[in-house]
Specification:
Elements lengths: L1 H13 L7 H12 L4 E4 L6 H11 L4 E5 L6 H5 E6 L4 E6 L6 E5 L6 H4 L3 H6 L1 E4 L2 E4 L5 E6 L12 H4 L4 E3 L6 H10 L15 H11 L6 H16 L3 E3 L3 H17 L7 H12 L4 E2 L1 H5 L4 H11 L5 H7 L1
Parallel strand pairs: 1-8, 1-9, 2-5, 5-8
Antiparallel strand pairs: 3-4, 6-7, 10-11
Pfam families: AAA_3, AAA_lid_2
Protein name: MoxR family ATPase
Family: Belongs to the MoxR family.
Length: about 325
């Protein structure tokens, strides 16, 4: 499939900048192709910002960066209408949200009020200012970075905000060889400076349209729903995954199938994506937190309990 060749070009291009993180790059592309957004959580200095910049350059997209700080206002994100005394009319000044690829850097360093300015954009790809709705450019993709919540000067993201991120990713520290490779690549100049686009935004929009054509068997959909329903009945989970989470997992599984050059979804796609798509959407009970249970571990336990559909054998052999 030509689409697979295009996707592999994007991945290889990003890997010129981000070393040893192919799985995380693929997850970012899953969210992008599925029409979702990414929450990238990790400690400072592991390459979160470079990941977003490399992705934007690889698809020739209009890129904007929003540096979230405690004094940032919602209008600093979405834009503002300013009265022009010469024309005696209000003129709309675009905010940095008006771009194809938006880096919401350290999103949890600003107040929940400003964080909420992203809700409409993340869900509906438009913003409403002074009663006027402004459509955002397509493709529209937000990659928000955040430091771990226990770090000083951070605010927890509201549940409604978390539910609108398609996947949550952690990069982690590089191993010895990967970090050595980083030093070698940075010796003369940063590789991001010579990175060029391998496809354009119109080609990316075409790739996104192919995702909806990926086939998902009814058994696959039932398997997905059983996993989601388990999160709503688990004693360690106070708030389970919403129907929005079910839809997100289905779209992500189709995008992963496209990346892997398949025209159908396998149960393995659901299993691989369950943690990054579902875990951040759940609220654990006090009992779970006192017992040191994590959302990721609970999802893994659910995956072990829920029976894999027999259609897996049929689809694999076809």
């Amino acid at each position: 499939m030509r689409s697979t060749a295009q996707i592999n070009k994007i991945i290889a291009n990003i890997e010129q900048v981000v070393v040893g993180k192919r799985q995380e790059i693929e997850l970012s592309l899953v969210a992008l192709l599925a029409g979702g957004h990414v929450l990238l959580e990790d400690v400072p200095g592991v390459g979160k910002t470079m990941m977003v910049k490399a992705l934007a350059k690889s698809i020739g997209a209009k890129f904007k960066r929003i540096q979230f700080t405690p004094d940032l206002l919602p209008s600093d994100v979405t834009g503002v209408s300013i009265y022009n005394q010469k024309t005696q009319e209000f003129e709309f000044k675009e905010g940095p949200i008006m771009a194809n690829i938006v880096l919401a850097d350290e999103i949890n360093r600003t107040s929940p009020k400003t964080q909420s300015a992203l809700l409409e954009a993340l869900e509906e790809a438009n913003v409403t200012i002074d009663g006027d709705t402004h459509l955002l450019d397509q493709p529209f993709f937000v990659m928000a970075t955040q430091n771990p919540i226990e770090y000083a000067g951070t605010f927890p993201l509201p549940e409604a905000q978390l539910d609108r991120f398609h996947v949550k990713i952690k990069l982690g520290y590089p191993n010895f060889q990967e970090e050595l490779e980083v030093l070698n690549r940075l010796e003369n100049q940063h590789p991001i400076e010579k990175l060029e686009a391998v496809i354009d935004t119109s080609e990316l929009v075409a790739l996104k349209q192919q995702v909806s054509a990926i086939f998902a068997d009814q058994d696959i959909k039932s398997y997905l729903i059983r996993i989601v329903h388990e999160t709503r009945e688990n004693p360690y989970i106070e708030l389970g995954v919403s129907p929005r989470g079910s839809i997100a997992l289905m779209k992500a599984a189709k995008a992963l199938a496209l990346i892997n050059d398949r025209e159908y979804v396998l149960p393995d796609d659901i299993k691989r994506l369950a943690v990054p798509v579902l875990a951040h959407r759940m609220i654990l009970s006090t009992q779970a937190r006192m017992s040191n249970h994590s959302a990721e571990n609970i999802i893994q336990q659910i995956l072990e309990r829920v029976d894999i559909p027999t259609s897996r054998r049929r689809l694999t052999s076809s």
